Amino acid sequence: MTSLDPVRLRHALAERLEKGGVLKDPAWRKAVEAVPRELFLPAFFTHGTGPDGLTYYTPVNRDTDENAWLTRVYRNETWVTQLDGHVTPGTADGPVTGFPTSSSTMPSTVVGMLESLDVDDGMNALEIGTGTGYSTGLMCHRLGEDNITSVEVDPAVSERADAALETAGYSTWTVTGDGLLGHPRNAPYDRTIATCAVRRIPYAWVRQTRPGGIILATVGPSSWSYGTGLAKLTVQEDGTAEGRIIGRTSFMPARAEAVIPLSGDLAARAAYADTERRTGVSPGLLDDWTPAFLAQLAAPGTQLVRAIGDGRETVYLFDTGREAFAALTLDEGEWTVRQGGPVALWGAIEKSLTAWQEAGEPDITAVRMQVTREGHAYWIGGRQITTPTRSRWIGDEPALRWRHRHQPLSG
Prior knowledge:
The protein is of the alpha+beta class. It has eleven helices and 21 strands.
């Protein structure tokens, strides 16, 4: 059997991305044609549903079937490379279950984000989330290896990416650490890009990006698998950052912000309500992307769970960090909400969704935002849709740590 030519596959991938309207800049096309994705994906998982209804991940590598492996490498698909923070294709013995914790994102998403960075020759960039290192390689080819700093929280993932980058010929700055803190040593940066999702844009990124520089990151994750937006912000001379959501996107959450799925008796968690009332806003809106995004802005870190009991559905919202909950049930065609804890989760979400409805239910791209040292604010249709989220600082650079008021503070 004749082996496939990876160079031809790279050129074919670039051609598909250009025809799809994703790849526009000739310089990025050269990067896609030059950077060997197969070096960054020596092995990965394919997935499918088993007879028990669970998702099973099957390891694939060059030894399994070289042509099949290489063909998959150059498909426009996301490939999972790690499960549960430690299981890799090299350690898995056959199909396994687990929760994806690292992957190589589909090239159209990677390239689309890089195009949105609006880079020029000679710019230096900070990447949050090295992952396999493929996107890092593309930036190294476009801007030069000395101009890229990439931060990865997982030491094993970082080591594999660094080795792949060296093999590809890019001796760039790869750092193991908490990407939410950025990397002050090489600041200021012209561009900051995150390949993980965050609940809020850390102010550390604003501080480390020069005025006029751009920050590009996915905002809005909790335990939901949808309802996130790609934020593009420009840093201002006064130390703030302003911009808007430019489209839908989806990435794994930053490790420090990952939510552990709820288990146990949900009704017991919602047993003690402080208030109970009717609501004119249906939780069914949360099935749609934009309302889900707005809900997560209003109540970051909240988990959404649907349960059936006594012949009726209950929609639960839990913020375990603040011991707050909302439980919504449909009774005679009207929704009733019970809320408990120090914050009214549904009250905050209801306010945002009402503002969205009054603005004519626009797309997620209508959302504008501002990040300051004191907090964050979001607008839609000229109306503020969230209460500004205050921030607290612990220490200063280089041991900079930033957390929201509602999150547990760490030393």
